[in-house]
User: Fold this.
Amino acid sequence: MSVNIQDLAGRPVIIGGGIAGLMTALHLAPEPVLLLSRSPLGADASSAWAQGGLAASFGDDDDPALHIADTLAAGDGLCNEEVATRILRAAPAAIEDLVRFGVRFDRTAGGTLRLGLEAAHSRRRIVHAGGDGSGREVMRALVAAVRSIPTIAVLEGYEARRLLVDDGRVTGVLARSSTGPVVFATGRVVLATGGIGGLFNDTTNPLSSCGQGLALAARAGAALADLEFIQFHPTALDGPGRPMTLISEAVRGEGATIVDETGRRFLMAVPGAELAPRDVVARAVARHLAAGHRVFLDVSEKPGAAFAQHFQTIALACRRAGIDPAHDLIPIRPAQHYHMGGVAVDHAGRASVAGLWACGEVASTGLHGANRLASNSLTEAVVCARRVAESVAGSSGAGGKPTVAVEHPSSDPVTVRPILSRALGVTRDGEGLLAAAFALLPLAQPHGTASDPAIVGLMITISALLRRESRGAHFRTDYPNHAAAARRSEITLEAALAAARELAHAPAQESVI
Assistant:
C-alpha cells in the first residue's frame, strides 16, 4: 500500500504488528488508523510462535465461572477478579470474532471446536488452529484481513523510538525507518509491542522482543505494574539454539510425562504432577537440574503415535535436533516465556498518561495475577483489543503539536541479558537482585544502545526487590513464604531510578530493601 506520511497526521497510531495490534486496528475500522511494525507483518511477532491456542469455556461440561476460578487459583491471590470476569466471559464471543476474520480453528468430525487440556485447567477448553500452529494461523488470517481494509495504513520497517509528551499528554510518536527519523503527530497511541524475552539468555520468544513498549511507556512517565512476575515455561527444548523451541503444555495435556535420566517421574509427589501450575513445574524442573540430573519429556506412550500428527511444529524441531520422539526422550529445561507485568491499564486499556493505551503482553490488566493460566494470553489480547479500540474511537484525537524530538539509537540488549538471566530467573534472592540493580543503573543512565533494555531491567529488578515474599512466578529463596496480604505492585521510571541510586549510596549493612 502506497502511503503519503503527511496524510497520516492525527490518526490513532498502533505500535506493534502482533495479534493485539492487528485486532485493535480491525476493530477501529473504518476509522483511519496507522499501524507501525518494525518488520513485515507476521515476521517478528511472538503471536506467530504461540502453540497453545486460546482458552474459552465452550465445552458442555464447562462455563465461564469455572474458567474464572481456575484463573484466580493460578494467579495466586493477585488477579483482579472483576477484570478476570469481564475478559473470560467475553472469550467465546471473541473467538467467534476470529472465525469471522477467517481463522480456521481445529474442529471435530461433527464440526464443533476441538478442545484441548493444559496445566491448571479443570476442563478441556483450549481452542487450537493447525494443532500446535495456533498463533501462525491466527496471524495469517488477521494479516490478510488488515491488508484488505484501505483505512488501515500499515508502515512496515518503522521502529518507534520515543513517545512525545507535552503537559502529561501524548502528542506524537518518533519513529525511524531506513530513510531516517519521522514524527507522527497524534494524540492517541496504542502500545501492542509484546514481551521481554530478548532480555534473557534462555527464552522461547523472539530475541527482538526486548520490552520496547515498556521503555516507551516508562520514558513517557506511565506507571508500570507487576513487573516482577515473569513466567518461565518448564518445557523448552534443551539444546544450543536460541531462542529455544517451546514444547507446548498441550503435549502434557495429552498425557506426556516428565522424567529424569533414570526414568523416574519426580513430579509425582507434586499436586497435579505434570499438570501443576507452570511456576510449580518450572521450579521443580530447575531444582532437579541444579541437583545434577537431566530432565526429559516422554511422549512415547502418550500422545504416542499421535504426537507427530498433532504437534507437527514441535516434532519437526525435534527431528532437526536429531531426536526421534517416538523412541527418544526429549531433553527440556525452563525458559523465559511470558511477562505478567506491563503497562498499568484500566478496564479500557488506558495507561496513566493521557492519550496512551496498551494491549496484549505489554499491558498489565490484572487478569494474570502472579502466574498466567495457560492460553489465557491470546484470549486476553483478542478480548481487550475490542475494548481498547472502542476507547480510542471514543476519545479526542487532539494531542497538541509534537515537540522537537532528539533521535535515540535502536536498542541492543546484549549487555543486559546476562545480568537479568542471573538475577531474575526461576528463583531469586536479595543479594542477586541488588547486584543486578547496581550493574543496570549505569547502563540505564546514558542514551546508548543498552539504555532502554537497562531501564526495563532496572524497573523489574527494583520491583522484585520490593516484593519481599514468594508468590506465583516470583520466588525468592530469602523470602520463601507468602506475605500476609496480597498486593499488586506499581512503579514509575523516576521511582525506580531513585530507589536504585539510594541503594547504590547506602552503607553495605543497610543496602537491602
